[in-house]
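Researcher: Re-running this chain for the archive, since the previous output was lost when a drive failed. Same request as before.
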Amino acid sequence: MALIQAEVPAEPPQREANVIVYGDDPCPQPTGEEEIVVCARRPEEERYRIPEPLRRSSRPPPAAWPTRVADLEDAQRDTRPDSCSPVGSFGQTGCTQEMMRRWRAERRAMRRTR
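Model: Regenerated structure tokens:
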């Protein structure tokens, strides 16, 4: 049984090129015998998109600015005037307003149930 041995080059190629081609674009040809070109083909729709690893994010998207402002205002509501709170300046002045807001909300709820 005779074994046929393929001719193996003594040294690896001096240059490698990894290229991504899109759609029907041709794969570039090597410029010499010491170069290897490896092509990966992607669909045409992916040509101008952000690369896949950069599209994924481990953190949630930031909230919109108006939402952040509303959250800050809610967090500080107890320390502002008209807040119906013993904390902050003139906190007691908002107790009547708070009572009226609750009364209006209860009336709206009763109207909806009718």
